[in-house]
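Record passed on here:
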Amino acid sequence: MVATLGNPDSKPYGLHRLWITPYTDADGSILGDTSYRMPLARTLAATENEDNDTLDGDDKAAAAIQGKGATISGTLEAGGLDLTTFAIITGAQLIESGVGPSLKRTVRKRGSDQRPYWRVEGQIISNGGGDNVMRIFRCKANGKIQFDAKYGAFMIPSTDFMGTPLPGEDADFLWEIDYNATKTTLGSTPVANPLPIPTNLTVGAVAATTVALSWTDIPTANSYKVQQAVSPFTSWTAVTSGAGGEPTDALTTVTGLTAETAYKFRVAAVFGSTTGEYCTPVSATTDEAP
């Protein structure tokens, strides 16, 4: 049963909720459809790490530094948990029998049971009414899993974990932090992991009424969508297909623009019927009319 140690929603601000979502495959790429809450969230602390190689010159050291890719290490603590969540973190087997008053749950760990991948989300409420949601996409307990039984409830004071990027070349996300001006609600139905986002968006040739754009191709994308904004950049408008706004390759020329006008452009990838998030915009000012 879930430990009942007070109302976790009574916190006015600070770390509010911790949710654990399992992956259904051994590689940590297929997210499960249910998240499990850890009551009385106490700590979600994380540190990003990256090993580097240095290129030394003949007459000076560290002429260049090349990173090997980032990971993240962290600790989570909560004031209790149910056995389902404990099984997710430890990789133990969860065995159930009976219903109602006869219900029995057993978590049993074999020496050969491997610790699986899972996703952790923590909601941090600000005293101004908004929140930040920290999401580490692909975690695995890599150190101690310390648990105590005291105060009349099953406790889990501390779990050490490591987060590694999601598998895949185009969507190897490690972590994200969302800021919301108004507090959101994290529920037991998890939001999907993000789709690949176009990178290296670059402005090419610029004329009075056209701007050429290119970006790094996403092999799994079916097509792309382009949006534009005009100074003072208060809103975004979809570029029509006829004006270069729905290319199938990783380059396009946006047409029908106004001369001597400042624009911003951004691109999203389309996967089937789903459009991903738009990338960081780039700026361009069209030339003077001939």
Notes: The longest strand covers residues 131-150. Residues 12-180 form one domain.
